[in-house]
Amino acid sequence: MFFIAWDELAQSKTNSCVPSFRRSVLNPRRPPVMNTFDNTLFVPLSSIPPLRSYFPADPLISRIYYIHQKDINHHLQSISSFNGNPKRTKLVSFIAFLWKIIAESDDDFTTCKMGVVVNGRERLNKVNFEKLSMFYSDTNSFSMKNYFGNVLSIPYSEAKSGELKEMPLSRVADMVHEFMSPAMNEEHFRGLIDMVELHRPEPLVARIYTKMEENDGEGLVVSSGQRFPVENIYFGWGKPNFGSY
């Protein structure tokens, strides 16, 4: 949304998506509703144990993987859906493959964590625009599509590296699907909003980024750029060939 607005501004076009700063679209419920799943994903900052000598100060590493569609279609998806298992998406298949690869670099007793960034915009965009139009002339500011800010969740799971090494890719893909599914709905994101409200003013931290135990391995978080509008962006010096966020 931000890049498209920037693109249209650079070309003196009429803005097709005006950013919305209406924070009320993320108001908590009254009374708030909590569930145990949300508590497994985010923890209060004060609950994180202090660094100890056996916790190395590992740097945060960000990497971009560019994989051709044919490689995922013909190889990863077929293996991850092997033996009668439901066909998994390209993203789930790739995450399962990456999870197994990372586990190979750890000893068998180290916990390996894998998480996925889930966008909550489309899951919170259930607005009765017909009713709102009776009171507001411009209802676009109520749409999560134009909301300026992050609306994200990071569901994750963990397993011993030794177990991941021995599992077939299809079983690892099942695990990825299982931990992602509870976060793919509106209720999950409403629960996160309520959770933030209940813990104010203390900030919350995504649990996958924390190390609670000595044998906790590294946590990997994967995000997909499938919906990143690379082909729709033009700032005046040529269209980009590749984009990331």
Biggest β-sheet: count, sense, barrel? 3 strands, mixed
Total count of helical runs of at least 4 residues:
9
**Form type:** globular
Measured between the Cα atoms of the first and last residue, the distance is 12 Å
Q: How would you state the average pLDDT, rounded?
A: 78
Task: Work out the strand percent.
Answer: 5-15%
Question: What order do the strands of the largest sheet run in, or round the barrel if closed?
Answer: 5-2-7
pLDDT under 50 segments (min length 5)? 128-135
Summarize the helix and strand pattern as letters.
Answer: HHEHHEEHHEEHHHEE
Roughly what percent helix?
Answer: 25-40%
Overall strand count: 7
Radius of gyration: 21 Å
Pfam families: Transferase (PF02458)
GO molecular function: acyltransferase activity, transferring groups other than amino-acyl groups
Family: Belongs to the plant acyltransferase family.
InterPro entries: CAT-like_dom_sf, Plant_Fungal_Acyltransferase
Q: In short, what is this structure?
A:
It holds the Pfam family Transferase. The protein is an alpha+beta fold and 245 residues long.
